[in-house]
Specification:
two-stranded antiparallel sheet, 51 residues, mainly beta, 0% helix, 4 strands, single chain, two-stranded antiparallel ribbon
Amino acid sequence: MRTIKLKKDKILLEDEIQEIYEEKVKPIGNGAMIMSAKKFIGKKAYIIIRK
């Protein structure tokens, strides 16, 4: 079961997590991307941008 709660500047996410990445967003063409392992192709991901 997935639960997401937002309170001012805090977020609480409860879900079945497989792996956590800390990565810089890199430019690609007119957009941007985050590198990930090939084994996660087709999986749903959450992207949280920090200040």
